[in-house]
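hi support,

uploading two proteins for the ticket. first:
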Amino acid sequence: MPIRSLLAETSFDPEQTEMIAKAFDDAWTELQIAKDEPAMASLVRTALARRIIEMAHRPGVEVQKLRDDAIAYVKNNPLWPAP
């Protein structure tokens, strides 16, 4: 589920939307899910998007905080593959 469709369900101004999209893109780039695992990639992308949008409603958030929180959230999820 693309982040833009999740954003359509909420109310953010254009600046917040750009911040959310940047945090998502940065988090996704850092996690680098293998392309041969489309099911896992889809789950991770959805989890990242939902977490970033959820946290973006809090006051005083910034791109780096959103990105770091979303990465930690995904990595602490039991679905994340063990190293």
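and the second one:
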Amino acid sequence: MVDRSSIRVKAMVYLPNAAGTHHAVLRGEDPTGDRVFHRLIGGSVELGERAAEAIVREVAEELRATLVEPELLGVVENVFTYDGELGHEIVFVYAGRLAEGDVVPPDGGWYDDLGIPMWVEWRPIGDPLEGGPDVLPLYPDGLGTLLPVG
């Protein structure tokens, strides 16, 4: 269980594929069952770790790949509800590429994040961030003009 009683600092990355048509995202579901969503790859910054170091570590843990040339796009503040609990994050958003190329299969695939299974798939670049009838919302909130539109 994640402690959401304080503001968390996170680092996440926008990872476009080699063709520049899609970017890698985690597909998640709120345990309450009322929401399916996409989230950028990444996670918490650990004590004593800089955000740029955290995103390199997170990509290695989650995708078993090497993030190269991470570039800070900006910082967003994300206030949300997950599993019925209030959450609050400050997220350093990076762009980067993987030394290994497109490690995520074209149709997506399961990855192991330190014992927690996670589904990673490709989201078309330019999809609306807030989703729609056929598009899942993309989190964290506040990505706005940080991500390329296509």
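thanks. also noticed: Helices lie at 51-63.
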